[in-house]
Every structure is written in C-alpha cells, then in structure tokens.
C-alpha cells in the first residue's frame, strides 16, 4: 500500500504565494555569473580513480563562468585527447590519466593550470 501524503513537505517543496506583486526570479542566468578571461582563471588538474570501479580519470576543477562555456571547454578537451568524459557539477571529467596533455592544451588556450595530487 502506498504512503499517503500528509503535508506540504510531501509535495516536493513547492511554495505557493498569495502575494500579488510576486515576480518569479530565474536562477542560473548566465548573465549573472562572472565571466573571467582564460588568463584570469586558475584551474586544477586532479587524478582520481575512486568510485569509478578502478578506472582512472582526470578531473579539471576551478572553472568560473557560464555552464555553456564549461561544456564547450570539456568538448574541446575530449576531442583533442581522443577520449570520452563528461561535464557536471562545475567539473570536467576526462577518461584516463592524461593530465600532462590536458595541462598543455589548457595552457595553449591561455588558462593557468596547476597539477594537484599524485
């Protein structure tokens, strides 16, 4: 038998307003986020294999800017390295331990990159 919904918390966190002057704000606008030039950004190249079944990945952290720019940077890195990967939670995840190659590519693009960890 299914659990009965008892209160507003069970509705998934919706908030209803009776204010006639209420204006819905849009979160995550790319206009609000600070867009830094590549030379002003300090990226970190991490090596990790935890939580991935022993598979090694290179994680790029520290990007500041719109999500669209992060996705484009991730696509460019994956294409130049010839590997797969993903972009989520403000990080670029590239399959394999290609930190040196990724750091060279990012430096050519004008980013400041630092090697972090092993």
TrEMBL record:
<dbReference type="GO" id="GO:0002188">
    <property type="term" value="P:translation reinitiation"/>
</dbReference>
<dbReference type="InterPro" id="IPR005872">
    <property type="entry name" value="SUI1_arc_bac"/>
</dbReference>
<dbReference type="InterPro" id="IPR050318">
    <property type="entry name" value="DENR/SUI1_TIF"/>
</dbReference>
<protein>
    <submittedName>
        <fullName>Translation initiation factor</fullName>
    </submittedName>
</protein>
<dbReference type="GO" id="GO:0001731">
    <property type="term" value="P:formation of translation preinitiation complex"/>
</dbReference>
<dbReference type="GO" id="GO:0003729">
    <property type="term" value="F:mRNA binding"/>
</dbReference>
<feature type="domain" description="SUI1">
    <location>
        <begin position="50"/>
        <end position="110"/>
    </location>
</feature>
<dbReference type="InterPro" id="IPR036877">
    <property type="entry name" value="SUI1_dom_sf"/>
</dbReference>
<dbReference type="InterPro" id="IPR001950">
    <property type="entry name" value="SUI1"/>
</dbReference>
<dbReference type="Pfam" id="PF01253">
    <property type="entry name" value="SUI1"/>
</dbReference>
<keyword id="KW-0648">Protein biosynthesis</keyword>
<keyword id="KW-0810">Translation regulation</keyword>
<dbReference type="GO" id="GO:0006417">
    <property type="term" value="P:regulation of translation"/>
</dbReference>
<keyword id="KW-0396">Initiation factor</keyword>
<comment type="similarity">
    <text>Belongs to the SUI1 family.</text>
</comment>
<dbReference type="GO" id="GO:0003743">
    <property type="term" value="F:translation initiation factor activity"/>
</dbReference>
